[in-house]
């Protein structure tokens, strides 16, 4: 069974940092285009950052310069380094893995930015 499990969320003060991890089991993360999405209460789920199998990245304008997506194929894990966090970054963050034929979602991890 293929699974993607997020970890690393929590409560952090404005200006702080967190690193989210998305660990794959049952499949190799290197074959997927990977993405981090987030959903705040009352809002639609939105793409935060993505990385292709070849390593190309893209970011939402709201996180450019603050967030970095990366992948470690040897550890079968994708990361989202989040710096200079703002209260508006508060959301449930989801890992997404897709090919042309299949899409997987993780269960989500809560990130709360508050003083």
Walkthrough of the structure:
By secondary structure, the protein is mainly β. It has strands spanning 3-7, 10-12, 18-25, 33-39, 46-51, 57-59, 67-72, 77-82, 91-98, 103-105, 109-113. β4 and β5 form a beta hairpin.
Would you tell me the structural class of the helices and strands? mainly beta
The string of secondary-structure elements, in order, is EEEEEEEEEEE
Morphology call:
globular
Count of runs of 4 or more consecutive helical residues:
0
Tally the beta strands.
Answer: 11
Average pLDDT over all residues: 96
Strand residues, percent: over 45%
Low-confidence stretches: none
Descriptive key words:
single chain; 115 residues; mainly beta; seven-stranded mixed sheet; four-stranded antiparallel sheet; 52% strand; globular
Quick take:
With 115 residues, this protein is an all-beta fold. The protein has strands at 3-7, 10-12, 18-25, 33-39, 46-51, 57-59, 67-72, 77-82, 91-98, 103-105, 109-113.
Describe the secondary structure blueprint for this structure.
Blueprint lengths: L2 E5 L2 E3 L5 E8 L7 E7 L6 E6 L5 E3 L7 E6 L4 E6 L8 E8 L4 E3 L3 E5 L2
Parallel strand pairs: 2-11
Antiparallel strand pairs: 1-3, 3-8, 4-5, 4-9, 5-6, 7-8, 9-10, 9-11
């Amino acid at each position: 069974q293929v699974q993607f499990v997020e970890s690393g969320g929590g409560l952090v003060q404005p200006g702080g940092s967190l690193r989210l991890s998305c660990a794959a089991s049952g499949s190799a993360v290197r074959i997927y285009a990977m993405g981090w999405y987030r959903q705040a209460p009352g809002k639609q789920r939105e793409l935060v950052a993505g990385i292709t199998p070849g390593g190309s990245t893209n970011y939402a304008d709201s996180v450019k310069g603050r967030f970095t997506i990366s992948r470690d194929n040897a550890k079968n894990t994708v990361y989202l380094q989040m710096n200079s966090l703002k209260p508006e970054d508060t959301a449930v963050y989801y890992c997404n893995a897709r090919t042309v034929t299949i899409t997987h979602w993780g269960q989500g991890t809560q990130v709360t930015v508050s003083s």
